[in-house]
Amino acid sequence: MPRILAEEEVHQPYFRLIVLEHYFFRRERNSSISSMNISKFHIHQKHHLVLFCCAPWISGYINGEVRAACQTYLSFTGQDFNTGPLITDAQIPVDLCGKFDHVWEISNGDIFSHIADYETDHFIDDTIPSVFGWPAQGNKYFFRFNGFELPAEHKGGWAEFEDLNQNGNYDPDLGEYPIVRLKGHPYIPTEIMWMVFNDQGIHGLTASSPLGIEIQLTVFGFNCLGQCSIEQCLIQYI
Ligand SMILES: [Ca+2]
Ligand SMILES: [Ca+2]
Fold first, then answer.
1. I need a surface site. Which of 136, 143, 192, 209 has the fewest CB within 10 A?
2. Cα of 133 to ligand 2 centre, how many Å?
3. Are 233 and 46 contacting, i.e. CB atoms less than 8 angstroms apart?
4. Single pTM value for the model
């Protein structure tokens, strides 16, 4: 069972809105709620609103006690989740909470350029930041592109990648690249976004004790002509 932090040990809630504003996904502009930093979720090409907002609602029993972690709209007093991973004994790496207030994103254009660069001469000439800064296990370039290290005490891995040499580490200098995995098969979507958060803090919304869970969120989309917008995007919580 994860260790539950006493209230005085819990860091201040630090959960900024995930603003999806990239090539493939974009947020609504010129709406009355956009000034409140609340995103709608659009597919770039068709400008269709496919989601207003979403968040996981999770509950379970711990030693007979019902606990829950939920989220509705963003509020600095009504949130159950905080940015960042959990480390040993489900503890929060307090110094890194703000560092993980970030969405990593990459397009298939960057990935295909990286693959072509390596396949040409088995040498990377262009260290594309979105590829070399990807938050994946054992990425020795992560600090250079992000300014901090992924905590070594973390278990369970990070964002998905194609492990070409099957050594368990992300080696972008050896031509490895980000992917998503569906039913065990690797795919390169039009765009991938990834972030991590946890419920190991004060639950301002539910007033529950923490479950002690870490959630890794991957949002990705495929630009499939002829498909309706909602069929082009997937949201995966692990
Ligand atoms: Ca090359
Ligand atoms: Ca590898």
1. 143
2. 15
3. no
4. 0.80
